[in-house]
Amino acid sequence: MNRRLLLGLIGLSPLALISSKIPANNPIINILIKRWKKSKEYTMIVLEAMPEDDLEFQPTKEQMSFAQQFMHIGFTNNAFIGILMDSKTYPDFEALMEANFFLERPDPINLFQPDNLQIRDAKENKALVSKYVADTFDYVISSLANLSDEMLARGENKEKPWYLEGHSNLDLILRSESHTAHHRAQAIGYLRMNGIQPPGYSKNNTL
């Protein structure tokens, strides 16, 4: 390889190298948006699979309920992408909870320890949880549409809570999606414990 060309490549960021292989117009952002739309679709299908009366099923009293798993997904996506988009910084969780980018939850229940929704009709509770989860996915997708590929490598030095230190903007997006998959998988286990065949992964994730 030509020495000058090699030195030029060494100076490029990984994102720049990837972008050089794909057409322009923010191709990476476009791919991320497609994947998040699919993630939303699949997450909502998994949520819908649980009967209304079993929405708050818990395998053990130490575990979050089925409903909480999804509200936790929505809240965390809202938080991570909010940190990315907001010009303000949040040094710890307490400061983060004061941010104004959070969408209103159906109930202010604990999303980190077992808790219960307000006592109301099971059908209404499921509709409220479903709307919240869908709205938080829409928040992520609409936020991504306001980014560019060039912005993905930024944000690493932005002040954040300790568990997100050193995360670039792309890290926050990928971390959100992997977190979604983590808790959605737990919810799928809850379905199986109730004798329900979970929606198939592959057929619901094709583009």
Summarize the structure.
By secondary structure, this protein is mostly helical.
Description:
The chain has helices at residues 3-10, 14-19, 27-48, 66-85, 93-96, 122-144, 169-193. The protein has 207 residues and is mostly helical. The chain has a single domain, classed as dinb family like domain (Four Helix Bundle (Hemerythrin (Met), subunit A)), CATH 1.20.120.450. α3 runs antiparallel to α6 (122-144). The longest helix has 25 residues, at 169-193. It is globular and about 45 Å long.
Secondary-structure map:
Elements: H1 3-10, H2 14-19, H3 27-48, H4 66-85, H5 93-96, H6 122-144, H7 169-193
Overview features:
0% strand; globular; Four Helix Bundle (Hemerythrin (Met), subunit A); 207 residues; mainly alpha; 7 helices
Distance between the termini: 37 Å
Structural class: mainly alpha
Classify the oligomer. single chain
In total, the number of strands is 0
